[in-house]
Queue: 4 jobs
Job 1
Amino acid sequence: MQLAEVEAWFAARGLPFAWRQERPGEPAILRPPPGTAIPTGNVRVGVIVPDVHLGWGNDVFRFNNPSRERRLERFLELLAELRDELGTSAFNAVQLGDYFDFWRAPGFTAVQARSMILAQYPTLIQLGVSLPLRHCIGNHDAQFVHAANRPPLLDAEIVRTIGTSAVVCFHGHDNVTLQALNVDALFETIGLNLLNLVNSAPVVGAVTSWLQRVGDGTFEESWVHDSASLPWDAAQVQGPAGWVAPWVSRSSAVEYGAALRGIELCLRQRVQLAFVGHSHRPGISWCPVASRRVPLIDVGSWTYGRAEFAVVCADGVGLARLI
Amino acid sequence: MPSAKKISRALQALALLGPAAVGCCHTNVSAERCVLAGTVGGAVPRLYRQASWRSQRLPAIKAPLCTSEARPIEDECESVDDLSALLGTGFACGPAGQAIQHVCPSFGDRVKETQAVVNDPPCGAKACPNRQLEVREESGSMTRILFYDDPSCHSGAPDAKCPNAAHACYYRVLAISTELAGEKT
């Protein structure tokens, strides 16, 4: 399948998406060098879901809409249909970490917090497990490092690949070593849980949630309903030779190059494409890995009403959002 | 009339929403180290950087690297050479221009450059002179690291916006020695 065919496939099933417009007339689509394909092996369609932040109450995923999960459930149902149509080995779905938000679920232990999140989103989580959605570990769900803290059958790792080891995914909070995933965030956890409690209160919660969205700093016009995610600055230095994209300068791109080099030496294979989340700001960037330039794609998030994801096919990578 | 950006910032401050911003965390720093490792059958030690030191399973380097012929992935030219990696001074070229790429933790004033004890460059007369660092531990122990220039990794600036990412010389670890300080027995 080609990117355009995936777009038409979703539209035909009543869940249309649009490619992100990085700049006017420039869709956020990455094309490989002429005569080459994205190296995903037998995988014909890969879908990458970024940060979701499932928490408790009126969390940043629900964001003032208690039925928000229905849209993601529908998305996962359609992915299962696409998987069946393509065949299991030709389809791959990765989630980039921060699927659960342990910082917004008031449990005294990780297992208690997990139980609260499972109780709030049972159908959604089951759909992800059965797809399967293959998760990375983020800073808000770093507890998944320990298998005992994961929901049954939920598959989480530090780094995932799509089709081949040349295409890798990781969350992006540890851009130094990819080993230091344990997060020392007691104060942030207390603060965000208190904020989440206020956000979950009747009436006032809707207002504070909206204020939180305005203050989040990841929207182009945060006070406008359904505003697009804040774009990164345009790249000052062009991306890898032959690849075409509306390149942006994602923060920490140089540091990510060092982390990706670590993955390469671990896998003993050159990485040609990398996906990260964490920032909640989508864009197609690149990073220096040894003496090469490697495309680095930030996929965005499903926070504050956004529904962003990436589609990977042989002919390119597109950043999309549900309409 | 205040700009939309100012209004947004004011709302952010009023709402005391600092903790709500993404990326507000401190990762465990225990993994921040670099390792100098020799291997059985290897003539030259290897510098394992922060992102790879836990998997010290790379093949031995059997001789100083001077040519780019048939070079395996682990011996590619890095963005930042070994010497700059340990000094924390190496620039890499990214989408926003050049920036220092931190591939090893900072050693502060415990590291200093000294006169190289071996002067002959292994890669011949066209190579840059050998260089040497000493890293002192609080215990008094001291590690001496000798570097040689690999001319096959010499390169110009990858972009006009990245002048400091050029490699007029490219230093790799050639030898290490450690003086172990102890107490009188």
Job 2
Amino acid sequence: MTQLSGLPAVSGLADVAASESSLRQFLHGLPGVDQVGAESRAAALGTRSIKKDAKLWALDMAIRMIDLTTLEGADTHGKVRALCAKAMRPDPTDRTVPPVAAICVYGDLVATAVTALAGSGVHVASVATAFPSGRAALPVKLSDVRAAVGDGADEIDMVIDRGAFLSGHYQQVHDEIVAVKAACGTAHLKVILETGELVTYDNVRRASWLAMLAGADFIKTSTGKVQPASTLPVILVMLEAVRDFYDASDGRRIGVKAAGGIRSAKDAIKYLVIVKETVGDEWLTPNLFRIGASTLLNDLLMQRAKQRTGAYSGPDYFTLD
Amino acid sequence: MTWDYAPAPESRDIVSLRSSYGLFINGEWTDPLDGDAFKTVNPATEEVLAEVSSAGERDVDRAVAAARAAYTKVWGPMPGAERAKYIYRIARIMAERSRELAVLETLDNGKPIRESRDVDVPLSSAHFFYYAGWADKLGYAGHGPDPRPLGVAAQVIPWNFPLLMLAWKIAPALAGGNTVVLKPAETTPLTALLFAEICQQADLPPGVVNILTGAGATGAALVGHGDVDKVAFTGSTEVGKAIARTVAGTRKKVTLELGGKAANVVFDDAPLDQAVEGIVNGIFFNQGHVCCAGSRLLVQESIADALLERLKRRLGTLRLGDPLDKNTDIGAINSPEQLARIRALAEVGDAEGAERWSPACELPAQGYWFPPTIFTGVSQSHRIAREEIFGPVLSVLTFRTPQEAVEKANNTPYGLSAGVWTEKGSRILWMADQLRAGVVWANTFNRFDPSSPFGGFKESGYGREGGRHGLEAYLDV
Amino acid sequence: MSDSHPRSASGRIDVRKTYKLYIGGAFPRSESGRSYEVRDTTGAFLANAALGSRKDARDAVVAARKAFPGWSGATAYNRGQVLYRVAELLEGRRAQFVDEVRASEGLSAKDAEATVSAAIDRWVWYAGWSDKISQISGSVNSVAGPYFDFSLPVPTGVVAVLSPQDSSLLGLVSVLAPVIVSGNTAVVLASETSPLPAITLSEVLATSDVPGGVVNILTGRTAEIASHLAAHMDVNAIDLTGAPEAGANGALEAATELENAAAGNLKRVIRKPLSPPDWYAAPSPKRLLSYLETKTVWHPIGV
């Protein structure tokens, strides 16, 4: 038996998912999350004052962590190509600005993005599994994944079946993630919990564990289609789960993606602070932390210009795509 | 790579310090008649901030006489609704000058600006705002239909929350119709002196609030003065007992808010991450210079290792250093005397066989500093489990059953506060019932509010501050 | 005594009563083996009462401490019922109390009746407070944050009571009932000169449902025992109402010494009143509140 750090005793993580009852026992044996305590901790971290070099570093890091996203019914190939240009060269006037981490699009636009980004090092992420609701039969979801991977997506952002989760069918949620992971092949799997629909932090912690146990490379807050999307306390709880999973799994580092609602550089820096002070500096890399956003990028660029020149900039000086 | 936060110091320009300060008596600044002066220093740098007057017995006489006159002629007869407006004014001016008060408090006390800015100053202003509203409603406070003020209140406050303790003392006193003579702590007089300016700014009638700076002798003279009707003291149990003896045989009403050795009890079903935050907040808030600090961690044996691992990891993220830096979590120890006491008790802990642990933590060369420290392997008989250290030092003990936790938690002459961490509702209420402490924080710690009564059982003192209950201390009921 | 063979009207020899202490629900003699003569206001012999010692006081504190968890842990409803039942028993012993009060205090028959009636009524008045005091002295506090925050009164613990010297039953009831109704336990020093009503009260308590140790009654020299109670580190509060009228400078000096000693563990002190109280006056809950600690409990509100 292994006594994990403050976690239910299990004889190895592999056994946790052996049955519905063992999963339930494990997930419900996780320490609870007190809402007020978690929120006040997140708020306190949000008061860190990041200045000068530390701010400049954070702004660049935040840019490098962005999954530049467009997930609209009105998306077109042209829109995606424009976004890819922005992803590779966020500020055409300043070569020191790094590219973002990835482009995130619907599956049918993956091929366009792959072509546009070829050789740039910017990843292509595709949402899949009947995003955003996840309401489709498993074979449909899997074929969604396979199509995106087949078109060259190297990251898949799947959604969990929140209905199954909320009705306690943990095994079903688990097995579905396992199946999607298999369908991903070498592509990285980000598992969207849609925390706004899980409502409680206890559920966020359980869903985080469930996804990690099932093989997620990343756990991700939201689709961006449900409010609230990512919040500081939700990220705090997910990072705590990632930290505990790292301990329990002898060092497996799972990434976290905050998506939706992060529009200002100030907010983005608060996320980096929470990452640093919850899981440590090792997670301050695009390999382990991502921010799903679209309008955030220009604010980061503006603040970056301010830090570099000392003068406040304006939106006319940054490209809209 | 590691991301180091750049220094983010709050500017001290907002504070204009005088080189020396007189006494505030009858609405005016006056030199002490026979007193000396002493220096107040910034404990983080050892820089002398200002020279402050030491009030002698004749100064105490003058201040009490001024307070008596103001009580008899102005403040006592004034309708409550009018008193209320003065107190509201004070609350508002404190909020308007909040940055200045916070920076000054941090300079003089050594506490992180994050705390003085987010806790001390807003709570102080809120305390005046709360009690202002009582001034014209005293008949409804449950202390009789027409409660009368006591008269002149002698108030002596400590150095750990200089402005907040001033607010806890002065706000209910004024609301009740009393006048006050207040002595701030020797090492932290500056915000009280700034408060005197605020009283002037509010056009508070002369003599209603008098501020006398000085050391223990000044406090003793004030408390022992024959013409005070009320004594309120916050500080050590030792001095509290001396005050209780001083007033024996008089008709002075007394309230004492003294020491503590609070147990913070963590059960195996606790929300662990929040419990860790509560433990950290419980003992490292204000460098542990907190009478209600959760200085004894009682953790259920089955999760002791896991909890300690998390706690230690969390301590590694605490940032110790320049109190004016907005990212500082742990500031300076208030005085060399207090630092010596903390060191001495920590050495006792070593000698008694407890195991000391601190995170890697560089202490500044100048000033008075002590790293956040945990002692494990502590038993009830150890002095570090019994005596108030009043510093950033946590003693960790374990228990097996709820009954054992309660026995250990209550096994102290103190009874100020306690913490309980469990997700089980009925157990929270059982623990709250069993713990012999004036404040029980369940799944939280070190929360304060003007409307919430605070004060201790047993040797932690008597009387309550805050809320409707806090008025009773300043009314003749 | 001059008449060495007193007989009743029927010529029968009385069975005389041995007056003892009341500690932990039992009636021990003083461990000191001493007694003292109790006389009426004319100087006539009434009885020998136990002359309690500091060790008896020590035992009484131990008994009171032992009884505290059970009594304070009982429901307020239960305490109210138990204490009301004591009033019923007092009523049953009315004639005895009238005789004793009359002899002790030199009252007329009418005044003695009045004082016993007032004492029983006083007991009933306090008994009714058991489940109401928290509703007038507790509060839910509107704190500026997501917390449920409430304050409630809880008993302070073991209370030493120096009962009034001049009002042997009404005064006694007026100072004892407010101690125990909220769950405290008491160590009472009976009126030194007029202890008989207190002893009879102990017999009433012993046959009531008040658990042993909740009320402990000592007879003897107040000046001898009070200082030990005032200095006792396991006593939480002390009522100095009956502090002895001793000391070169009169009553207050003795009371001051006791208050001074009480500071040793910061006992809650009820000072000796400057002038003798009017025990017939309508009481207020003030005395009851003096033995209560306000406990404030915080808990977050969240999902």
Job 3
Amino acid sequence: MTTIKGEIPHELEKEFRRIIALKYGLKKGNLSLALQNAIEEWIIKQKRISTTDYKETELLLKQIRKEFPYQFTAVGSEGKIIAYAPSLIELYQKLDLSAKVLIIEPEISILNKTYKKRQLSWNLKRKRMVSSK
Amino acid sequence: MELKTKKDGIIKVNVKCWSFYPSDYRVKEFVMNIQLYSPQQKSWIEYHNMLLDTGFDGDILIPMKDFEKHGFLQVLSIESGQWEAESVSGEKLKLISSFSELRIDDYQIEVMVESFTGNNSGILGRGILIRLKTTIDGKNEQTCIEID
């Protein structure tokens, strides 16, 4: 663990602390946890190629699947085809991973992608409450 | 772990079993040992005692630090970030997704690998279970799969 120092507007700090208190409570360490999550999310966002445009994605998917049927395809920025292979392992062996790519699976793939919404879990962990005397 | 071969007439079935994993003094979890192909290492990585969770309707969820370490962030699915997950408490989380191959004993399948910021859990979901014949054998405290 390490300490980082920086300046942010006072109002932003107040709002940050308020939301942490609402979401996680006033327990010690929650600020660090929330800060860590925020930084992680920011890092991932910077690393990720934007795929939030649904229409654009659908169009690219159709085009590439037509051109490379039955293949897993790695697409770089601006939709450039970097590599393709009939299996994921063969495709990953072709990639050096120094640059980020997006993977398009073949249409016939049996991957579990029916819905764009996942049910995460119904796994509830029970914890014995400490009785207050 | 044991490997059994049953002969029933002409049908041969390989059965692979894993003992329940005691996560605390009372609860024993249904687990499997699996291997997942790492795009970064270009080799198979082992996951011991990976929890089976019928509540998760995806294939496999791995801890965020593993997702990053094994290079899945470099090979995201084109539809990554367009999926959201809802927990039992109604909390909504944005999932990131990639692909890999998963091995359970001799059985190898393509899977969608997912994670989200802050996730420390590794679970196998219904996306895997619907492709297997799984027995949760509570009396013998083991989880078994049959591979044809």
Job 4
Amino acid sequence: MLSAEGLRHVFGEGRGQVVALDGVSFTLTSGQTLAIFGPNGAGKTTLLKVLAGLIRPRAGSVRVAGGRRAIGWIGHQSHLYEHLTVRENLLFWATLYGVPAARRAPRAAEVLGRLGMGDRADQPVWSLSRGLAQRAAIAKALIHDPSVLLLDEPFTGLDLAAAAELRALLGELRGGGAAGRVLVLATHNVDEGVELATDVAFQRRGRFVHFAPRAGRGPAEIAEAYRRAVAGGTDG
Amino acid sequence: MGDLLAQAWAVARKDLVLEFRTRTALVSAVVFTALVLTVFNFGRDPTAVPTVDLAPTILWVTFTFAAMLALNRAFQLELENQALEGLLVSPLSRTGLYWGKLVANLVFVAVVEAVGLPLFVLFFDVPVGRVLVPLVGVIALATLGFVAVGTLFSALVIRTRFAELLLVVILLPFLVPPLIGAVQVTARLLGGRPLSESVGYLKLLAAYDIVFVSLASFLFRFTVDE
């Protein structure tokens, strides 16, 4: 379970103050995926950083069942060390997330196998292509079997095939029902991730100007609703 | 506490593996040490000032600036693919991160000093044989203090422009007390005086270590959190 209550955050002081979050509240339970769409500068990344505990908001609170250990983060960057192998990276992050020593190596092998990277485990990260590095970043995010996955523009830089593959993988990861994960996906591109979403939010100038279940709406309907809600938005 | 130490060791081990695999900063620091000692060796007039009077200062100036290279790289490793962001999202405690970086920096600086000390003896022909053990003890005591402060400040400046320059500017004033202590004790040891004459300076070094390791462990969280 992930819940946010009355989140407010600003950057800067006085006249130069920029409102990044303004009264954002929601609750998500297992198996739900919230897709947050918004123009550049709408506050999506700030929201994810607040949810992850990277930024302490000026007001409001976040509750994550299981605390920090329950969160997996996939951002613009992979968080991987280029001169370590994929396996060494995973073992390092597994240690930080408190995966028991005896479980680390089997867990790394399991995650890499699931992502089709079993044969890349001993390759240094610097030698991976963009798509493979993205998969390694997902493996890193999954190493501790998180129940909440936060995804910040995860499709950036991926070609069409890799993006479709990632969408399929995320759908599989979300699962369903009580055993499923909570996914929060932020993107500025409405075509990305709509099919994954159970709930959709449009964010503009730090506010959710629309927040509702997707209720079977397809990409075209979501795109139309987005255009209406964020009409003329030039926040970036 | 067990978790904290395991996390700190994981960070230290990762930093050391990265450093010994790439060797960029280590080789730079060792070459820098050798060059500074060479410059001092040829840039002094041995007839004007006895070597034994000048040597402690040269040793500590060299070690201080070589350590700066190590401290500069401590958090630059974490800028690669925004790994620092990943560390801060993870359950790794800020104290665990600080201790991990501190241990890695200490090992790094110790390696540079282990190469620098024989070069110093070679260039300046100072009699360290009799006082090697206490000298190594003083080096360890002073190094712990300035690496503790330097690790804290390197985290503080890492998101700024000109981080490398800024680190030197804000760190050097804090290094004056351990430098004074280290130079004074080293001078007495190389001058053949008993260690008991340096008790005051040794206490200063020990107090500096205790205060700054504790203070930096507490303050570190304020330097890395957004």
